[in-house]
Hints:
By secondary structure, this protein is an alpha/beta fold. It has three domains: 24-204, Rossmann fold (3-Layer(aba) Sandwich); 233-262 and 281-464, Rossmann fold; 467-577, ANL, C-terminal domain (GMP Synthetase, Chain A, domain 3), CATH 3.30.300. The chain is 29% helix and 23% strand. The protein has a nine-stranded mixed beta sheet with strand order 2-1-11-10-12-13-14-15-16, sandwiched between helices. A hairpin with a 3-residue loop joins strand 24 (490-500) and strand 25. Helix 1 runs parallel beside helix 10, helix 2 packs across helix 7 (188-195) and helix 8 (231-244) packs across helix 10 (267-274). The radius of gyration is 24 Å and the shape is globular. The N and C termini lie far apart (72 Å).
Amino acid sequence: MDHLKPTSANSPPLTPLTFLDRAATVYGDSTSIIYNHTTYTWSQTHKRCLQLASSLAGIGIRRNDVVSVLAFNIPAMYELQFAVPMAGAVLNNLNTRLDARTISVMLRHSESKLLFVDSHLQALAHDAVSRFPPEITPPVVVLIKDYNCLLNDDVGIVTTSYEDLVKKGNKNNSLSNDDVGFEIVTTSYENLVKKGDANFRWVRPVNEWDPITLNYTSGTTSSPKGVVHSHRAIFILALDSLIDWSVPKKPVFLWTLPMFHSNGWGFTWGMAAVGGTNICLHKFTAGDVFTAVNRHHVTHMCGAPVVLNMIANSPNAKPLHNPVHFLTGGAPPPAAVVLRTESLGFIVSHGYGMTEVAGVVVSCAWKEEWNRLPVTEKASLKARQGVRTLGLTEVNVLDTESGLGVKRDGLTQGEIVLKGACLMLGYLKDPRATAMCMREDGWLYTGDVGVIHPDGYLEIKDRLKDVIITGGENVSSVEVESVLYCNPAVNEAAVVARPDKFWGETPCVFVSLMDGKDGGGSSDEILKFCRERLPHYMVPKTVVFMAELPKTATGKIMKSTLREMAKNMPPSMGNSRM
């Protein structure tokens, strides 16, 4: 069979951008996007993306240039997930919850050429770009006007026409921003769409390993890690996620997950593959979620456990008219939260992933026989991460000392490692960090601690840095938190290590209580609740009450901040309120 080999006919580069071409043909008249009073069909979305890509190419955006986006879940944000790579550029979604300093660092690190900004965030963008040193050229900033709000005119805006932007393209077909300082092009987003060529032949990747996205893992340091993914990885991840979640044709998808968060876990492209309807929400409360679900007959939505908790604890919570599939990830959801959410009519699925793998690569594949179990036991099973998805080659839990796989007993802990086609190309400009994460043994090391149960299902126990070692015993903060969430008085809970002269470390819990629920919410009652459900060494020694726990830009509880608070508590300090 030596004569059989890859050819240009049987091995064109894989890319998720082809999903949009097909959607325009198959689902052309079906609704693609709904945002307040704005509605588009898939034919219109396809045309708008081609026109925008054409304009980007026309103003000098070249292959592999980085184009950044700072926007909420609005139609333009969705369109840019296709239009930017259709121009050959690399899409960089920026976290809207970050501060100006961090955004500025990311823009400089990525050498971004163009920055699209939601009009609600123009002051933040102005602050970020104005922090560039004089010797570094900032990106040209294009304002995405949201006509549902009034613009703030007091942030130093310079109005520039579409033609002036085109003139900035130099002879080498690249953007030049010399001598113009900070600039926002008002209304230019729609101008770029309007003046583009609807017959534009979009720029296909030369190789399926060409980069398509750049996403930063954290906004907490001055040296952020930029994760670069290939067209091939995203193509596989997007289809893999649809199959694993059993998403049917033409679902109605409610965007409660920020699109900037790993490109909406790949579902930005995935919705085009199945002709789904994207319900965009600029910002939302639990009440907005219930309203949108009932008004638009939502079938699917995603979000972190904090969103599940918000929905379950909302005073507006009412049983749904029709079931809604909810995929959660980012942290193990407490079984009590899963139980409360499902009692409203949501069907909760749990997935595991990280920025380095672009989306969900391990999920709790449900077995029919589990349907016969009590609801509390089913909720506990759903809180497990599960098994690899079809697109992941292998997942394992390795002993941190021997490097060998741990026993499949649900007790022996180790570090979770992954191997598969949807893994990142690496960290931008950081070969050392890439080598530390993706090692020569062929695994990507996640930094998460987990166990494998006898049935082969994976369960996260903690982050390596979050394990508490008290008197030589390892305490899983996640396990203690799961017990705390069973207390009806607890709204949020986080457990961290507090230094102790005798034990080395002891568990310290930070708690926010439910509104209007004082019963069971004193420190003594919290500790008694834990003693009845946990081994003695796992019971917290300190309880700190807070009105609200500090969150990261992606909505996760900031354990680093809480660890620092616990570390700085005086030894004599016991239980307290803050």
